[in-house]
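so the lab meeting is tmrw and i was supposed to have these ready like two days ago... anyway. pasting both below. for each one the top line is the aa sequence and the line under it is the structure tokens. i havent really looked at them closely yet so no promises
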Amino acid sequence: MSGKIAAEQVSRHVAGRAEIRDTITAVLDDAGTDWAWQGPAGAPERWVADNGPADLDVWCAAGRQSPDPVAALARAYPSAVIADAADPRRLRHTGVAVVTDTGLGVVDFTHGDLRVGPILLIPAAEVTVDPAAHRLTGAAAVADLLVRPVLRGRIPGPERLAEAREAWTAATPTGRTALARRLTAQLGAAVAADLIAAAGGALPDPRLPRRARLRLAARSLAPATIGATWAQRHSIRPAGPSAGPLGLRTRGVVVALVGTDGSGKSTVAAMLGDRLRSRGFPTSQAYFGMARGNLPGVALARRLLNVGSTAPPLALDAAVPLALDAAPPLAVDAGQRLAPSVGPAADHGLASAAGPAADHGLASAAGPAADHGLASAAGPAADHGLASAAGPAAGHGLAPTAASEAGPGRTSTGGPVAAAADTSGPQAPVATASALGSASETDTTSVSESGRPTEMETSSVSGRMGEMRTGSGSDRPTMAVAGTGPDSEGVGRRPDGEGVGRRLDGDGDGGGRNGPDGEGGGRNGLDHRRLRRVAAWYYAGEYGWRYLRHVLPALVRGRVVIADRWVYDLRESPWPGSAAARVAEVLVPAPDLLVLPDAPIDVIHRRKPERSVAEQRQQQERFHSLLAESPARCAEMVIDTSGPASGDRVADVVAAVVEAAHRPRGRRR
């Protein structure tokens, strides 16, 4: 199944085992060559009734020629090639796992000679078959029913042993002699004699399987066959603790889901996880997006770079008291404007003069303002480290008092801070205040085991820039804190949480004053190309840490990691075309599967109307172009999520995961 699987391939469907058996029968009959079911009588019927990992073994005289049953299964049903050996010095066979309505069904096709490893039992030209029942007969049946299980380490059960003895009796003398001669030459006279005696009715020696396997190992390491043995070492070695649900050796797999918001990533991830776990494959979750900076370490990076928000979202209720020092709480109605003051600072959404500001819960002069816990003129303001009287600083988006700035040492030492955002319109200003020095701060980040950030809390924001938000919705109170230094001129946030300039976290572009080359108007840190380049390198390193911390341990344990996005997001943000993106794609291993959930753009827009249709279309086109590069180790897939048939498309992903899990780790398509 390696390669690209497109959404247009809608003919595959999940079926029952009876239908799959009938499809195999029809394809092999159309081929016009000899074929037969292997194993004891009734094996196909038992396989249909079963829901476990037992194989349905099929012998085909020809190799994988047209019509190929393996290709026919891949066209009709979600299926995965879990074993494929074509070296004529050993058994040539192809194992296929098919997603059925009762679990995974395994079909193993043997091509040409009947072998066990390098041991030749019956050449293809000497295999005899009952064309009506599609059953092996004569010496070929003895080799399949008796010799094959012994070489695999077990003595067959009474019923199977009885069938082998009947076939030995019915075999021609020439066939019996030829089989005995080949067994003697390859396994030694003693082992061959015990096998022939068991076929003739003698009680098998309990030590016979062990003795036979020692001879098999010696033949596998012989100079004539050691090359073929080494090439198939992944499937030859006992699986041990690495055994998967099908009893074969498996490894961890990374499935990366990409796509614009509303394409269906979360739905596909949930369905895929449920189906894999129901089939015995353990799963883990990981997050590789850059959504609005809610990632471990982003707040720290912004503090170091002095750009953007330095405070992660708060997990607080809508009404948290705002207190500076011992002042009473400030109660502000979320529906009121917080900064409609007069003076130059009004252009920046800041209260800068006495008068109307007091009506909105923000005082701008000495005296009554102290009752609200805020002061903006000389005197009491110095005790709180806040000032908002008009003055030269108004041009910077903040109006510190002209008479009594507290200086770097004056900080806010009060308790939790809360204020209400204006929700009256998209252009409403946001309440801001300045901390003229560094404040006491606590930045505690909690991350789930899957790598997705959970609640992140902070108190007493410090530095030149920062913000505090009490929730993610636009109706939740918000307070932004802007610095007064030259590196943070005019930086703020709109009430909807978007940055004024280009956002550092890369989840889209803000309004702002970006020029054609991305350079901001003025010295806005969010728009400064050098800082965004540094941010790109920071994200590249953070991606590497996230892979080492969350993905690699899960892969070592043999789990399937379902990742929301991958490092490819770094190609577009925060600095499109940055070398950091290329370095990240080299350092972080490519995912095994790259899956793009897709739907008509109007369907996507109905799911996520907060983004424009043009933006969603552009993002999906970029992801389609990404898949065209074939960056994944095993396969890229487009999954149609627009209708009820998306469940069958997820079955295709399940099959691709099964195939990747059985592929050696170092092998790429």
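ok protien two:
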Amino acid sequence: MLDSFRAQTLHGATVHPDDDPDRWHVYYLRPSEPTWRVNARGIPQLLFLIYRTPVDRPGGRKGGYVAFDTEFYVPDATRALIRTALQAQTDAFATANGRQPRPVQLDDIAITSARCFLNIADADSLFFERVLNPARPSRFGKRVASWTVELSPDGAALVDEALRGQGASVFQPVYEIEWFAALPPLEVTATFNASTFYAFTETRDADWNFWGEDDYRHSISESLRQSQSTVIDVKGAFLDNEANRAVVDKARDWAQRTLEKAIEKRILLKAAPPSDEDRKEPDGIEDLRIDFHQHQIDSFSVLYREKSLVTDRDTVSGTMPALDGLTDVDGRPIDPDTLIRRVDLNHEFFRTLRVNVHVDADFAGLPIHSVETRLDYAGKPMLLMDGDGVAGDVDGEFRFTEADAVGRFVAPVDGPQDTYTYSYTVNYRNESRKLEAGPFETPVSNTIQTISVGDAGILDVKVLAGDIDFTAIASARVTLWYEDTDVPRFENSFELDRDHQAHRWQKVIFGPRRKPYGYRVKYTFADGREYTREVGPERTDELYVDDIFHTRRVAVRARSDLANHVSDINVDLVWSDAEHAYRVEKSITLNATNPFFDWTFPVITGSTGKLTYTERTVLRDRSEIVEPEREATGSTIVVGPPRPDEIVVEVFPDLLDFQKVRLVKVDLVYDDGAGVHKQDSLVFRGPGNPQVFRVTLRNPAKRSYTWTATYFMTNNAKHTVGPNVDDTEALILEMPVS
């Protein structure tokens, strides 16, 4: 596949290598600008008629008419020079690497989409009254586009002077093209963090006075703090330029859309107050205080790696050269007077309808033998024109056998007749059946007709591997099918893997493609497991098969004294997705040598599975502590028993977006009121490992501490959270609420 990030310029053309190291002799050409299309004698396909007397039309006075063709193609003579230069490079590479020389293989870039327009000063105004073109050139062959422009009297004089001069004319065609390319490795990590903290306090204070009035006070207070944040990180080995930044922006957009879709399918965090049962006053108690705290965290990540096929694009323009100085294939100067004519009002041009016909189809790559077109006007066949005038094809037909051909039809104007008809017949290779379509009635104002592949009765779909991670997925078996009223259902199956990332599905259906096609994908994991995904109908000619999985990451940390108190902590983790009958398991052991572990595993995008874990701790005295199964609600799991006679608080910065936060200072204070007092300040300047606040306890019952976090933002704002009283040993910092 074409490597879009490596290129060189040779003889005015852009040359890309192939991204496959074994195809070091293959190159792809991209022209630097459009040029005149010339006939077999090397003369530009151009006709310029100057009206001796301006013509009055509803849109104003007209002074001239010009029609010409352009092409987006590296000329054959230039190709020969490029091939010679590349062969020298290839031979040098073979010699330096001890390989057998190979002949250079030179291909054109495979354009997937193209459109064109004419960039001319004052278009549709003072000089150029009306510009007609097909809006898109042929995607195959020399990418020919046909243009017609009607000029004002001043515009005709301007174009006449420019075409007869030296240097450049006034016409500047612009081609906007897209093609498939291979990019260097990209890694995109998109993380979503949500947190809800709910606090409920209820106080009942009763004072029954035997001699005076009774006193009763009942107070309730509630507080709710919620936060959500997303962090998108793009990494890749490529230069920082405008084109590559566009690729990064595209990856960010993809990650944002993926997160939004995943968030929609997850259960949003909801804080719930204590139940009536929780608030029930115990018997015999007159004074009551209820403190209820609820803290929920939801966090997940999507990991996207890209080193396969994407669509690259470019906008290329070029100013057509003037006729003076051009030569034909024999080296003779081109006489402008053979292409520029002055005509009277009684010239046949003013009494004729002219229509150009293209076939936008890859005759070399498709099973098309030929396409025969027929145009009729006022009940009679339109005559076929060539470069020298009427060719005498009285049946009004033109036979296409290549994408670069242009059929030019002409007919005398019949005053009241404002439409013409066209029909076509497609002849296929190795097929006796034909496709006959039309006649189609068309306004005379539509002077350019393009017959596309879909109109030619061929199903032609390029299937490409999208963001599939072939380190986790060994292959993807794709099955496609199509059917219509007069087309029985047919299927095609094939494999996509690391070495085969593209497939072309072709089928002659002997009729226009009116309906979408269906497809499904069976993914085979590297460990042999399989998963089949049914996908909805599609109409696109380029089908990307994407990975159904995103990567979730969970960090497992030990809170215990692994050096003196705990020997091993055995943790069994299970991701279970009942909806898709999908399950992933992992067993790990934490000890003094390995006190933490990061587990990444594939998760079906949009699934509502859950992550559970069990832990078994082996102490130094060989006794064991077994904990029941728990569900992990965040991206960090802290396991193991607490350290004896001490409290160890790990402060995690995992949920912070350091693109918005410059640094965070966390002040922690412990005071048991009996002589143990400790305070410390922890500073975080970026993502990293947790920092620890450790206190040796004198009173084991007193395990709470006070913490305050001060956030210094990149926009110079400052936010303070706290002071808060907490007893958790895994303090997870969150983005402050603005």
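from a quick look at the 2nd one: The chain is about 10% helix and 50% strand. The CA atoms of residues 213 and 382 lie 112 Å apart. will dig more after coffe
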